[in-house]
Amino acid sequence: MTSSSKANSSTEARDPREELPDHLGALRAFALSLTRNSASADDLVQDTIVKAWSNIEKFERGTNLRAWLFTILRNTFYSDRRKRKREVADPEGIHAASLYEKPAHDGRLAMNDFVVAFDQLSPEHREVLTLVGASGFSYEEAAGMMGVAVGTVKSRANRARARLAEMLGLEEGEDILSGSDRNSLAVMGKSGVAAA
Amino acid sequence: MYSDMADEKPKSSIRDQINQNLKKVYEEALQEEVPDRFKDLLAQLKAKEGEK
């Protein structure tokens, strides 16, 4: 089928839609990181494919097709979410995290503990970590996809990592919580303001 | 063996641990087989395009 010879000018002449099959796996992985549910992830990928197909003329040839597809997917995800008004806005995952119990561990992270903690993050935090931490996009590319400034991506990623570390009882999180709770809250509040 | 060093750079090692786990989660998702419905959908879209 599609031999991904990412060679030269031949890719320019080609209809980018021909390349969609190459990106299905990555789209689905990204959708899973946002939804944490395979049925919703599949629906999201389906909507993304249809939108990409019918708006392909808006894709700028020579730019990163995967980044363009990821942008459609995440925009679809957030607009669906806004439509479901019943859902309480919890961008920092504060409510979700309050129901969560820290795992006991010996300093080395168990995969399962990590997954459970990752599930507790807000989609915004899972998104930024997936883009810059897992799928190898640069901060600049992530900023373009998320429609925010590069600095916002960096601070959001830092806060997401800090929250994970805190939930997992790793040292960085322990640092945040050391001293009185009031101090730690003040610190987090400040960084939150600077970041958002 | 590396415990002394780990004390000096706790932040970067936590960051590494988190990144490694993020990659694992993502790669596990990538390894899942892509459902046929997407290939079918692409075939349908393509067929529709041909009718025009």
From TrEMBL, chain A:
**Keyword Metal-binding in record:** no
* Pfam families recorded: Sigma70_r2, Sigma70_r4_2
- PROSITE patterns given for it? SIGMA70_ECF
Q: Which UniProt keywords apply?
A: DNA-binding, Sigma factor, Transcription, Transcription regulation
Q: What residues does the RNA polymerase sigma-70 region domain cover?
A: 23-86
List, for all copies, the residue spans of the domain called RNA polymerase sigma factor 70 region 4 type: 117-164
Q: Which domain of life is it from?
A: Bacteria
Give the family, as the similarity comment puts it: Belongs to the sigma-70 factor family. ECF subfamily.
What is the name of this protein? RNA polymerase sigma factor
**Can you name the source organism?**
Thioclava sediminum
